[in-house]
């Protein structure tokens, strides 16, 4: 999985996609190569690294084109999320122990707003 923590001008022309992740009140941006996104476990570890939460067990979700929050917990879900990112993949991270399972699959945009 190739990734960069810096925004590159014209990145969509180069086959990269921008990822905006939210954990608590903190947002992070990074870039991934759309054609080589890697595996979910690599992405999960990358999110833990950029948010500086290496030992925290978290749930990862993404906002789909309808504004619903859908889980990313395996390679299939991760690749689906990557394929729907246009131009940005919005990621929402929750501590597993604090997770509100009722929001998954619902249109609750207020939790994802920047």
TrEMBL record:
One of its GO terms (cellular component) is anchoring junction. Coiled coil: none annotated. It is found in: Cell junction; Cell membrane; Cytoplasm. Residues 16-96 form the PB1 domain. The keyword Membrane applies. Its main location: other. It comes from the Eukaryota. Keywords: Cell junction, Cell membrane, Cytoplasm, Membrane. Pfam families: PB1 (PF00564). SUPFAM superfamilies: CAD & PB1 domains. GO terms for biological process: centrosome cycle; establishment or maintenance of cell polarity; regulation of cellular localization. This is PB1 domain-containing protein.
